[in-house]
Amino acid sequence: MLAPPASASTPSPAVTVHGACPHDCPDTCALVTTVQDGVAVKLQGNPAHPHTGGVLCTKVSRYLERSVHPERLLYPMKRSGPKGSGQFERISWDEALDAIAGRLGPLAAHDPSTILPYSYAGTMGLVQGESMDRRFFHKLGASLLDRTICSTAGGEAMALTLGGKVGMRVEFFAEARLILIWGSNSIGSNLHFWRHAQAAKRAGARLVCIDPRKTETADKCDEHIALLPGTDGALALALMHELIVHDWLDHDYIARYTVGWDALRERALQWPPARAAAVCGVPEAQIVALARDYGQTKPAAIRLNYGMQRVRGGGNAARAVACLPALTGAWRHRAGGVLLSSSGAYPVDRAALQRPDLLAGRRPRTINMSCIGDALNGDARALSGGAPVQAVVVYNSNPVAVAPESAKVAAGFAREDLFTVVLEQFQTDTADYADYLLPASVQIEHWDIHTSYGHTDVLLNRPAVAPRGEARSNAWVFRELARRMGFDEPCFADDDEALCRAAFAPGAIDVEQLHAQGFTTLRLPDAPFAEGNFPTPSGRCEFFSERLAAQGADGLPDHVPNHEPAGSSAAYPLAMISPPARNFLNSTFVNVTSLRAIEGEPLLEIHADDAAARGIENGAMVRVFNGRGEHRCRAEVSRRARTGVVHGLGIWWRKLGHDGTNVNELTSQRLTDIGRGPTFYDCLVQVERLP
């Protein structure tokens, strides 16, 4: 429901419109946009939404600046220069859509698997992210995209252990007496959880941060455990060891509500704290003390995040952490347990939204988005043995900047024989390679409906203002392409409001409340696993996974060393992780002037000892390199880095870097043990000072 325009002479009264933050963040904040004379003049957090509490992060508080940014794409464009040059000429929507359909049609007639969609979480909305687009590509018979680039190792680990992406309700962290913040810089990436953690701390709780980097969150916790990247599984197993030998166990809970205890016990007893300390690079006494606190404090809660699973053994590590609450019976309390993601709690009707039945029995190949560099360069394994990709349609993602081993990604997109369509709000690194560049609407300009992976509310996003220029929603674009391709199924006529209604089956959520206040809360128990009832095949927490064993994998969690373990290479002696710069979200917001001004320029955080050994002073320009590539940036000699580990803060657009690269020039396309995910934080480098 758009705010009505006013006459030029009489200002209209201001109106407010409910919305939702679309970005890839667990908080999924409720928004209120104030509109005057058809213009959005204010955007704030919805004070009536308990999880948002009227507060937005620095990034989204600048959302209106991004919406009216002078570099916003407003018109369809066609490439007029070499691929990658970013040279375009304006055309009409009809010209663009007719041309795109004209190129995709013959490819689909010959071999539709040569067409690849590429999208991720540029919006988390169910409508603009995974509805009409999926219907279009299913009907087309295009290759399927394995959307792995963020969370699949941890997500599949939770499914194998707990039965899904389920866990504690975030608001009950405020009642915990001990909180382990594991692999999360909550102040920068989960601000509204941090509010609950602070409430718990004020009430006497102890907060422990487990992270290779001394983050802003670590600064505010009672203790920081700075383990080496990729060693979280070893730490979790050592905690189990101490719980066992000191009998800090809930034997009744284990007997009633778990599977595989005897085997897990035997595995954990192989990991005394001394062994884990040597692997993790932390003092043995720190592990012993953490185990004692976890075993003796009730209730104890773990806030796990995705950073720790972006290594070879990330799935096993997440499984090991997910086992801990069942050992101590923490699930008996609503303020006990673990939370990685709450997204599995939502009864989303994805079959209605995405219509996989449109495949009509066809079984297209699947291409892993984390291996897009290899796939576009003809690697047979990445292509699942099929034909080369001849067309790619990119939306809600910026793969040239965010995908690993980005030199290969850029080379793939530079292929003259690759037909590339990009739906975007700005001319990103990927947009520079488009044959056709289509202007996408922003969140305050379209309908959408949102779940969350950090709380358990459904949010409705209403358009507050008309799209700027000729920008259109993603769903509109795919509807129009479907019409031009001759797809006549009634589902292709669904408008964006109809798609919002299709997201949940009747009765699944309180639709009346959703429309009235912009959000509604799922009806869930306070302590979902107090008496078992895990959504696993056994109904129990599965320490041992029959599903993994049936695949020929180890059914128990274990420490799986990195592909590139710290200290294993004389040529590349430093482990590099690439956490997000605080004022960016993946590659979003990088072009917002006020936020980029805060970040300044691409940085590499390095410990003083590692810097001194290389003659690097604070502020020096450095070359960071390995066998995959090199990246030039400025060094910050920082207390946030531990010895042997450097931090390449991301994700900068390549074209805004000092040498047209970013940290993903250095990351690899190797995958995780579970979930086929990327291993961004499993990366060895060397650093040298530039003249």
What does this structure look like?
The structure is a single chain. The protein is of the alpha/beta class. Helices cover 29% and strands 18% of the residues. It starts with 14 loop residues before the first strand and ends with a strand.
What's the SSE blueprint?
Blueprint: E1 15-20, E2 30-36, E3 39-45, H1 58-61, H2 63-67, E4 77-79, E5 88-90, H3 93-110, E6 115-119, H4 126-130, H5 132-140, E7 144-146, H6 152-161, E8 178-182, H7 186-189, H8 191-202, E9 206-210, H9 216-220, E10 223-225, H10 232-245, H11 251-257, E11 258-259, H12 261-268, H13 273-280, H14 284-296, E12 300-304, H15 314-328, E13 337-339, H16 350-354, E14 366-368, H17 372-376, E15 391-395, H18 399-402, H19 406-413, E16 419-424, E17 436-439, E18 448-450, E19 457-461, H20 474-484, H21 496-502, H22 511-517, E20 519-521, E21 541-542, H23 546-550, E22 574-577, H24 593-599, E23 603-606, H25 608-613, E24 621-626, E25 629-637, E26 645-648, E27 684-689
Q: What key attributes describe this structure?
A:
691 residues, globular, 25 helices, six-stranded mixed β-barrel, six-stranded mixed β-sheet, 29% helix, alpha/beta, single chain
Tally of alpha and pi helices: 25
Q: What Rg do the Cα atoms give?
A: 25 Å
Beta fraction of the residues? 15-25%
Q: Sheet bearing the most strands, described? A: 6 strands, mixed
Shape: globular
Ends: how far apart?
Answer: 58 Å
Q: Uncertain runs with pLDDT below 50, 5 residues or more? A: none
Mean pLDDT: 96
Within the largest sheet, what's the order of strands?
Answer: 5-4-17-16-15-6
Helix content: 25-40%
User: What is the number of E strands?
Assistant: 27
Q: Please identify the oligomeric state.
A: single chain
Instruction: Provide the structure class.
Output: alpha/beta
